[in-house]
Design a protein that fits this description.
By secondary structure, this protein is α+β, with helices and mostly antiparallel strands. It is built from three helices and six strands, in the order αββαββββα.
Length: 144
């Protein structure tokens, strides 16, 4: 599979329709197991992260993600993602995302985003240049 096909699959996998401010609906859902009626959990996580990211500015990137699966989601019904803006600061912003299907919460997540910053002070020394594990003698040889 070439990179363009992979890119298109990921875009389809994460594609959301914005219904209104902070409210998004899934367009395509895939089963977790072939012929399963349930949605793949990784897709729910990806779509929740996408919905949250769409409510931040471009220079914020996720750095913490906590997810809770509350119930199985039906692949034949759309998921609606409600994004609550918990905090918008200069360096950090936090979002709470709830995925709902038929009026029932099936998934929640708490996501923290951090703004890109110039590298700050570094308090660790550089790793020494050492051989890789494959280049080392076996322990049996070292015992002699």
């Amino acid at each position: 599979m070439d990179s363009e096909v992979k890119k298109k699959l990921v875009e389809t996998f994460l594609d959301l329709e914005q219904i209104e401010i902070n409210l998004f609906r899934s367009k395509h859902l895939i089963p977790g197991i072939p012929d399963s009626p349930r949605v793949y959990g990784g897709q729910i996580i990806g779509q929740a992260l996408t919905a949250a990211q769409l409510t931040t500015s471009d220079n914020f990137h996720p750095h913490s993600l906590h997810c809770y699966f509350l119930s199985g989601a039906d692949k034949n019904l759309p998921l609606v993602y409600h994004v609550d803006k918990i905090r918008d600061g200069r360096s950090f912003c936090n979002r709470f995302v709830k995925a709902v299907q038929n009026g029932v919460a099936v998934f929640t997540s708490e996501i923290s985003f951090h703004k890109e910053e110039a590298e700050s002070i570094n308090h660790q020394t550089q790793m020494p240049d050492v051989p890789s594990p494959d280049e080392l003698d076996k322990i049996v040889l070292m015992k002699k």
